[in-house]
Every structure is written in structure tokens, then in C-alpha cells.
Specification:
- By secondary structure, this protein is mainly α.
- It is 66% helix and 2% strand.
- The chain has a two-stranded antiparallel ribbon.
- It is globular, with a radius of gyration of 18 Å.
- Belongs to the CDP-alcohol phosphatidyltransferase class-I family.
- Keywords: Lipid biosynthesis, Lipid metabolism, Membrane, Phospholipid biosynthesis, Phospholipid metabolism, Transferase, Transmembrane, Transmembrane helix.
- It is a multi-pass membrane protein.
């Protein structure tokens, strides 16, 4: 049946757009990165939904999804941080014989921890309704927001973002959050009913409010910051439970 290939095709479009985003970064055409990441995010959201609607869930689809996510939401955010760190240092060409030009590789720490996170996710039976630690798409959206702030000098914050210490700190904090034992709610709706989706609906309202107040790039990073803080507050308030590790 053709329908069983539809979700996997959507997943592969996620992977393709991740590759295109990388090409854009390394050929200094970063203005195209938001478009490719947006398509990857949509594909990542709808491939699982299509699989459920068409009733063609499969172990292969799950593996393909993780492999595609590793590129689009693992390698790409690392590459964006690499680009921003090099911008901060005024490096246009990386020379592997000159150690000082390799500092930007610190950005790829996020890529390494994204790989660990995705491997854990596939084995962790607790993460069926929500997440334990920051999910890789959210991490990517946060970094994309920083990139857009830097490119457009949104609110005059370019120099704040294009700062080595700030970018190193972001890389380390994001890497920790990716594998942290902190419950975070999922963005995906299991049904159209309000029951069981109150947190998600509330967060959608927060998202709309942020987009109405802030410029796009700043809104992206602020929304993910709110997501992390809200998840931590809900966890500490007992509304999100951290179950015993099962892997």
C-alpha cells in the first residue's frame, strides 16, 4: 500500500531540509535557514500524526524520525552556533592548522548532546506523553531565534548575541538541558478535547502573546525560554512527574 510510505516520505523531507539548512550556513546564505528549519519542524510534527491517522506506525518510521532529527535538530543548531561564534571572533575561514579558528567547534557540543538525547529518547519508555529534558526541535528554535536576532540586530541586541562568552554559555546550558532529568510537556495533541491538553492550549496562548509583543526572532527564543521555565515550575508544583528511569 502506498499510504504506508507517506509518513516516511514526510520524515525524509525533514532530513532533506536539514541538509539544505546546513548548506545555507556553510555557504553564507543564512537568510535561507529559517525557511528550511520551518519545513523540517512541520514535517517532524506531521509525520507521526499521519502515521497514526493512516494506522501505519512502524519501528522503521521511528528510527527514520530519529535519524532525520539528528541532522535537522542536532547538527543544524550546532552549525548555527558555530556560525555565530565565528562571527563573534571575526573568523571568515576556518583553518584546521590554526587552533584559534577552531573555537567555534564549541557550538557543536549541542550536536553531541543532541545525539545522546535522541538515543535516550528511543530507549526511555517514560517519554510517550511528554519529554524528560529539552527536546531537540525546541533547542533548534531557540538557537534560530538567536541567529535571527544577530542577523537583524533586533532591538539592538546583535552585540549581546554575538558575544563569545554568551554563546559558550548558551552551548553549555542547552547541552545540559537536552539530557537533564527535568520533565517537560509535549507540544503534540493526542486529541482535540480540552481535557488532557490544558497545558498545551495555555502555552499556545503564551506563544500567540509573545508573537504579538516581540519581533519574530526575539519571540522564538523567548517562547522556548518560557517553555523551559513553565515546565520547571509545573514539575516543582507536582503537575509534571518525573517517573523512575526505565532504561
Amino acid at each position: 500500500m502506498i499510504k504506508k510510505y507517506i509518513p516516511n516520505t514526510v520524515t525524509l523531507s525533514n532530513l532533506l531540509c536539514g541538509c539544505l539548512a546546513l548548506i545555507s550556513i556553510f555557504t553564507d546564505q543564512v537568510q535561507m535557514v529559517p525557511l528550511f528549519i520551518a519545513i523540517s519542524l512541520l514535517a517532524d510534527y506531521f509525520d507521526g500524526l499521519l502515521a497514526r491517522l493512516l494506522k501505519v506506525n512502524s519501528p522503521m518510521g521511528r528510527e527514520l524520525d530519529s535519524l532525520a532529527d539528528m541532522v535537522s535538530f542536532g547538527v543544524v543548531p550546532g552549525a548555527m552556533l558555530f556560525y555565530l561564534i565565528n562571527e563573534a571572533k571575526g573568523i571568515e575561514v576556518v583553518d584546521f592548522q590554526d587552533f584559534s579558528t577552531l573555537v567555534g567547534l564549541i557550538g557543536f557540543i549541542v550536536t553531541l548532546f543532541s545525539c545522546v538525547r535522541l538515543a535516550k529518547f528511543n530507549l526511555d519508555t517514560r517519554q510517550t506523553e511528554g519529554f524528560v529534558g529539552l527536546n531537540t526541535p525546541a533547542c533548534t528554535i531557540f538557537v534560530l531565534g538567536l541567529l535571527l536576532i544577530a542577523l537583524g540586530d533586533i532591538y539592538g541586541m546583535r552585540l549581546t548575541v554575538i558575544n563569545e562568552v554568551f554563546l559558550y554559555s548558551v552551548s553549555i546550558v542547552l547541552s545540559y538541558l537536552l539530557i537533564a532529568e527535568i520533565p517537560m510537556f509535549s507540544f503534540k495533541f493526542k486529541s482535540l478535547e480540552l481535557k488532557g491538553n490544558k497545558i498545551r492550549v495555555s502555552f499556545i496562548l503564551v506563544t500567540i502573546l509573545c508573537f504579538s509583543i516581540f519581533k519574530f526572532g526575539a519571540a522564538l527564543s523567548f517562547i522556548i525560554l518560557c517553555y523551559v521555565l513553565i515546565s520547571i515550575v509545573l514539575w516543582m508544583g507536582g503537575m509534571l512527574k518525573r517517573e523512575k528511569r526505565e532504561f
